[in-house]
Specification:
By secondary structure, the protein is α/β, with parallel strands linked by helices. Helices cover 41% and strands 21% of the residues. The longest helix has 15 residues. Bound molecules: calcium ion. Calcium ion binds next to loops.
């Protein structure tokens, strides 16, 4: 019998042994359990078996690439947080352009320390725990405790990042946040995605909430939700 790792299990799906070994080392030092798979199909299968707290998913993988793995998970309504590892800029574009519900991404070569910090940020967000009152703006209702969002009583599934972005805006109705403020509030100290990251996630939230989305764009400034 293995004892449960203090900080949860991270599934690393990466076919480059040197990177996988480095991640295993840094993650276990940081108190995470680590399981490594080297191809996409096995990685996908292990998500169901191991129920990891988070998946570090390389994009370029044998049998099934990382993007397909994430697409299949989301199609099964599995919203385990995913941090993509991309090798090139065009992979970054694929990851953020496809609304796969990626929680973050790093581009090779990356610092393992940086990735560990980002994993911590994503897990803090996805575990909620800030416990506060239900927020309502128009027909959108957001429950920080259960991390549920409904629009006219219809459930809307948001990724951890999308949820936190919407919650940050709804907590301060009418306040206009700059992209930089949203980056530091939602993505935390480990953020370096740039303002485009905020725009992409706002677009994803809007696509999911449809006409009922409370998010307003303030040209040249940023975003707000709720009262004008
Ligand atoms: Ca690879």
């Amino acid at each position: 019998m293995k004892t449960a790792p203090a900080k949860g299990l991270v599934l690393v799906v990466e076919d480059e042994s040197s990177i996988a070994d480095l991640l295993r080392l840094y993650l276990s030092r940081a108190g995470y359990g680590v399981h490594v798979e080297r191809d996409g199909a096995r990685g996908l299968a292990q998500v169901q078996v191991l129920r990891p707290a988070l998946i570090v998913l390389d994009v370029g993988l044998p049998t099934l690439d990382g993007i397909e793995v994430c697409r299949k998970l989301r199609a099964q309504d599995d919203w385990t947080p995913v941090i993509f590892v991309t090798a090139r800029d065009d992979e970054v574009d694929r990851v953020i352009g496809l609304e796969l519900g990626a929680d973050d991404y790093v581009t090779k070569p990356f610092s393992p320390r940086e990735l560990v910090a980002r994993i911590g940020t994503v897990l803090r967000r996805s575990s909620g725990g800030t416990g506060s009152a239900v927020l309502e703006t128009g027909s959108v209702r957001l429950d920080p405790a259960s991390r549920q969002v409904t629009v006219n009583d219809r459930n809307v599934t948001l990724t951890a990042t999308e949820f936190d972005l919407l919650a940050a805006l709804m907590r301060r109705p009418g306040m206009v946040f700059t992209r930089e403020q949203l980056l530091s509030t939602v993505w935390g100290a480990a953020a370096y995605g740039g303002s485009r990251t905020v725009d992409v996630h706002v677009a994803q939230v809007r696509a999911k909430l449809g006409d009922e989305s409370p998010i307003r764009t303030h040209r040249g400034v940023g975003y707000s939700a709720g009262k004008p």
